[in-house]
Amino acid sequence: MNTLYFKYAVEVERTHSITRAASNLYMAQPNLSKAIKELEDTLGITIFERTPKGVIPTLKGKEFLEYAKKILIQMEKMESLKLSKNRVCQSFNVAVPGSCYISSCISEFISELDVSQDIDINVERMNSVDMINSVSDGKYNLGIIHYPLEYENYFTDFLKDKNLKSEVIWTFEHLLLMSRNNPVSEKEKISEQDIENLIEIMHDDIYVPYINGITKKNISSKRIVIHEKISQFEILCNIPQSFMWASPVPEYILEHYNLIHRKCSHLSSKCRDMIIFPEGYKFTDIDRKFADKIYSSKNKVSFVEYI
Prior knowledge:
This protein is an alpha/beta fold. The chain is 41% helix and 23% strand.
């Protein structure tokens, strides 16, 4: 069985299209179709079916694709064994949310690696549900999930079901993040009425699929959803009438974008960040260095007083 075909099938599932998958794989569409047909004949099952929503896996196809993904991940790990025994490779992979203190931690962590040795670092941002699945499937050794405390039972059960363990980084209240020029930034107490006419910048860090609604009541009827952190800061900086809920942001970022944190406990929600990893997983030296750096970065923002 040609395991290269596994890669083809996974790409078709990801794109829901033979044509797009062929383009991404830099091959002709008829050749990809032929490869998928040969794979189906070898397995004796139909992997995909065409629907109005595109090419989607059959029930048997879904089962096969789960196995295929795990095999491809293991093959990647075996490929890494080709490194010379005389070379030290600083290998590390992690899935993270978009929290600024975590992004700051990652840049500091990487800057402290030994550049005279091989470096193989893989960092991907994703939501907590996708992250749990990715760590469970073996794509990542570690992940940092971020969720509202009101969904504690949901995530506890989900982690248990996926045979994952966790370490709590911290539990905190979301803060209002806004420009220093925001019309309500100097108020002693910010109320729901103060922000209901402002523009809320929303991100997907604490969105939980499979649970109806979003994690926080939409106070404002004006909102912009953007998935790129830098864009959010630019908007907050350039549109003083905007705000967003966020975990504490490092001081140097606040200064760079002329932003300010404000407490608003009666509207805020408590959230929790946790490191997750497979049951029985042994932290490598570089894993532990990263974890220590995360706690250090958290301490830098958690001990700051916010008005």
